[in-house]
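Contributing new records

If you add data, match the layout below exactly. Sequence lines come first and carry their own label; structure lines follow with theirs. Keep one chain per record. Anything else will be rejected by the validation script.
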Amino acid sequence: MSEIPLPPPPPAVHPVHPVLPGSPVHPSPAPRRPRRRLPRGTGTVLTAVMAAALATSATLALTGGATRQGADTATAANALAVSPAATSGGAASPAAAASAAPAPSAVAPAATSAPSAPTAASSGSATSLTSVIARARKSVVTVNVQGVAAFGRGGFGVQTSGSGSGVIVSSNGYILTAQHVVEGATSVTVTLEDGSTHDATVVATSSTDDVALLKISATGLTAAPIASGKPVVGTAVLVLGNPLGQYPDSVSTGIISGTDRSIQVADMTSQTEVTRTGLVQTDAAVNEGNSGGPLMDTQGRVLALVTATATNAEGLGFATPVSAAVPLLTRAGVSYTA
């Protein structure tokens, strides 16, 4: 009996479930985030801006500090060491520079504006300050001294020399300076703004206030007026003199940072420390050789006479209020402008 072939079994029937997006079998693709492209040429702009910034930083680092030496003898012995503040300048953002640039050429960074003079808020006031300084410089002198200092156990004398600054307060030759500039001097000469040199006589001194009055034989000089009233913190000021004994007619600007200060200064002549009180503090540049020179307001009036500077810090100069010198002028019968 032959076998009858059976038909193949029907395929197994399984329930069909639709494959939905997000299921393990068919995960949903991660959403694609649109890529943001920078405008063409931005790489060149960024490179130029970074190179300019690095060049500016290098310049600031190279010129930030200078070794100070000098002929003056008064320095602040108790000054604190302070790090100089870093100067920063603004520059346009790279994206803004790129959008404004018509072509992928190098873009110069925005120039950092130099700090203006304290009262130079406009071209008119800047011109006014320039005129004030031009006149004030005619009143400032260099004071050169020769003396003999005792050294060693035997006290043998050694010839010494030094220089400081001073300010003319009377057209007939009266000059104010610091007492420590002329202390122990055997001869004193004064060099005027026009370069002429005159022998000077020490008329009066006050070691307590560190002020001295000199007299030269000259007339028709440009005298600086003397301010009345007490110095006020925040007042814009000028310091004029001969820093380091090498740069006559120098001018620096700043403000009055404090009043009624007390410091200890080293007196090289007596080899002792001396206390100075009632001083004006300023952040204007003050260096050795400025001693005796004027601290003026922006109208050219003498507020104080430079006394000392901190050699281990920046922006710490001290001056004796000019009111301490008025008694010397009164006793000498000096007519001055207030």
